[in-house]
Amino acid sequence: MKRKNRRNRNKKKTPKIENLTRSILKILKSEPTNSFNYKQIAAKLGVNDPSSRNQIVKKLSQLAAKKEIEEITRGKFKIVPNVNTYTGILDITSKGSGYVIVEELEEDIFIPSMNLNKALHGDEVEVYVYKRRRRGKSEGEITRIIKRKRDEFVGVIEIQKNYAFVNMQDGRMYTDIFVPIKKIKDAEDGDKVLVKIEDWPEKAESPFGKIVKVLGKPGDHHTEIHSILAQYGLPYEFPKEVEAYADELDTSIQEEEIKKRRDMRNILTFTIDPKDAKDFDDALSFRALENGNYEIGIHIADVSHYVQPGTILDDEAYERATSVYLVDRVVPMLPEVLSNNACSLRPHEEKYTFSAVFEMNEKAEIQQQWFGRTVTYSDARFAYEEAQHIIETKEKHIPAAISLTGEAYDADSAVATAILKLDALAKIMRSKRMQKGAISFDKVEVKFQLSEENNPVGVFFKTSKDANKLIEEFMLLANKKVAEFIGKQNPKKTFVYRVHDEPNDEKLAALQNVIGRFGYKLDLRDRKTTTQSLNGLLKDVQGKKEQNLVDTLAIRSMSKAEYTTRNIGHYGLAFEYYSHFTSPIRRYPDVMAHRLLQHYLDKGNTVAEEDYEERCNHSSSMENLAASAERDSIKFMQIKFMKDHEDEEFLGVISGVTEWGIYVEIISNKCEGMIRLKDMNDDHYIFDQDEYAVIGQQSKKIYQLGDEVYVRVKNADLIKRHLDFTLVAAREEVEA
Asked: Which of 631, 634, 689 minimizes the C-alpha distance to 660?
């Protein structure tokens, strides 16, 4: 009996080697051409006791039996290449676990937090997939980090006597970063900082880093906006050498250059843009032809004339890939000397342009088309409101209330006539597009009225009216026809397309579930009925309390549009060929499209697809980052706005229901916040996933997706960008 107890005690003293499978596979994978025996593996693991060696021998046999490793000679093993191992991108959730998205697999691989093995959100990783499945999902473990997505992060520094930690703001960054005291720069305790990871030792819980930049005090407007840009690795100023290079460019209009172009300066040309626009990418020209048709020119700033390949200006534009539109500023892709001056199609100035010129009949049918470099002169600049007034009243008089100058005036008769004819043609084009299955997303945009100190003093909604749609239709036409012109050539030519895949069936089914709560229905039998019923849905919700929610969910059910050289068409627009050609001041893919179009007009051979595919991937990635930064800046401003209205009650619509709380979107300003279930003290509420609702255990009171409720601000946290509400009552209770 005593001997048995002693044996049990000894057993307890021998620890089991943690993550032994992973450790062995990692060793063998690190040197895939070499073979190892159990002694070599034990040495690499730093263990030397008999029990550990036995564990290694046993595990080697098991892995060999599963054919995950192979025994080359007696007792010597090496990795079996590519067995259950894939490469993909890691997507970490706010709960700390992750999914690896692998291109060749239909479903993502679930990675529990304990198997992330120091991989971070967005990293390119190698993942080993277990044979077993958990809850029907493929599950795996990160075995190697191939490429870090980023090494700089935003957080708040906490300084101790000999070291500091930076606590992360991004919920998907699951670790803080250790910073030696000599690497904290001039940061003070509690500052918001940009920190760079330099090393992550094998046995360290946190990575080691250094402070790159002190962003300022948390909650301060400029600190938070700069933090948003830094968090996504977006710059907010140009390197001095890039500014200097741009300043040295000759931006004058030269006779020699004019001779190489189609001179369209004597044809009526004008721009229609937002009131506060500073860069004018596009202009329209219009003239009636003797045969009863119309010549319509879509003239785009010729950015590629100034931004030449191989220059530091081009390198910087490519890296940025897009302008970023935050609530209080624009972070441009090009320096101001180009974006607001040389390339901007300002009124009463001659400019180099790249044009798509169409001859059209009364039915908006294209009779002839021409593409090429031009020189144009803008006769007038209109705000959307001014053009809209002409369309609505059929008059040329512009009242002071909407005039760009603040004074009433009469627009030129020829321009007013052109706007009315272009509007009529645009409506025909739009109608044809809808009949072919285009989807009409007219999502309401939230805009803020800002004080001089950038404080939000009001909220207004930007909607798309006829004047906006006029410009949109002609820009779509130019983008489509340029893509068609190249795409239909034989032999095939490499080009930059803007593609949009068909929606995912599962996401459409999920959308159907949600809108069913509001009494709507989708017909998902085939592509045609799906697009028709989606359009019907988007029309039916206009002006309703649930419009923003349904619009948002419908957009999320769509695939993401992206740039690629591999054309699959554009589902949302119902175009077989589509590109981005009309905004080269703010989008790099448009610059590439201009260069390629000119190259092919000059009878050049096709270019290397791989090079351009890589540039397309980069442009898509930067576009997504910019969109995330823009969303974050709107969220920040919404919270700032709500902070000043903490004592007021607001009517909202329940926009989301989860196991931890109810999301409510305020109808009057679209600000979204959360009512936490733990704060609903009148009952104990349980989340019902099938009903998109929370239900009181005692009262059986139900709060369901789409219900209207009154709320008050509980907490508006500018630093964490969280908005918490207190539930006042359901609307029907208040109005009963």
From this structure: 689
